[in-house]
Task: structure prediction
Amino acid sequence: MSDFGVEQTARCARIMLRAIDEAAKANSMKFIAARPFADPDVAARKIIEIANDVEAVQDGRIYIERVNAPFLAAGGSADDFRAGSSAPSRSAGYGCTRAAPA
Result:
């Protein structure tokens, strides 16, 4: 192969690499904003804050909808709510409790 062939091959390789870099930059993900409740502990604090403002129905129980809707309106997602609602129970050693079948 002559020097001209080597130079032409190197030039083509540089052009292809530049095109690949430009395509990668055009297709890269760009996040708009950070999620405010991505940390489960922060989400748990917000859930508890909202739950303390909700009026109990009976025996200290509250409807989950009364907590879920304000949490979603504050910028949380369903995944954030799920992670935040299970974080305090795991760290405190509590589990979900259900009434025993009659």
